[in-house]
Amino acid sequence: MSGLRVYSTSVTGSREVRIKSQQSEVTRILDGKRIQYQLVDISQDNALRDEMRALAGNPKATPPQIVNGDQYCGDYELFVEAVEQNTLQEFLKLALSQACPEFPCWTPSPHSPQPSPGHEGPFDQLPVIPNLTLESLPQCRPLLLPPL
User: Fold this and answer.
1) Region (Disordered): which ranges (predicted)?
2) At the top level of CATH, which class does the domain 4-92 belong to?
3) Where do the H-state alpha helices sit in the chain?
4) What is the pLDDT of residues 110-127, one digit of tens each?
5) Fewest C-beta in 10 Å: which of 14, 33, 65, 99?
6) Cβ distance 102 to 138 under 8 Å?
7) What is the largest CA-CA distance in the chain?
8) Model confidence pLDDT, tens digit, residues 68-118
């Protein structure tokens, strides 16, 4: 499986209200930041529960558990910590180009032109996009970049 997945359950006992609350908070935050994900309901198939626990490396792991591709991101507590520390993009193992899939970002490559003498600013190398206006840009969420 590829992409961001949130393992959850639609069936919880009366003592597991905490799980429902945590699942709701994770999906609310991801939806609010317009981060695309797949919700995987482990109550539908024991194999999915076993898959979640194997990825988490914990035979007793409970939802919600978050995975990107085959990389384990973490559980609810780690997710909340990443949100509070403004490191959610790194926690979710999202590349900068995934931050706003509606508008692919230009990333310099080793083959990008070098600045000419006297023009050493970072914006001298940006590509020109014809007919680009602020109104034509999709509503992107802010990029979460590490502090300098």
Assistant:
1) 107-127
2) alpha beta
3) 17-32, 46-56, 76-84, 88-91
4) 544 555 555 555 555 555
5) 14
6) yes
7) 69
8) 999 999 999 999 999 999 999 999 998 754 444 444 444 444 544 555 555
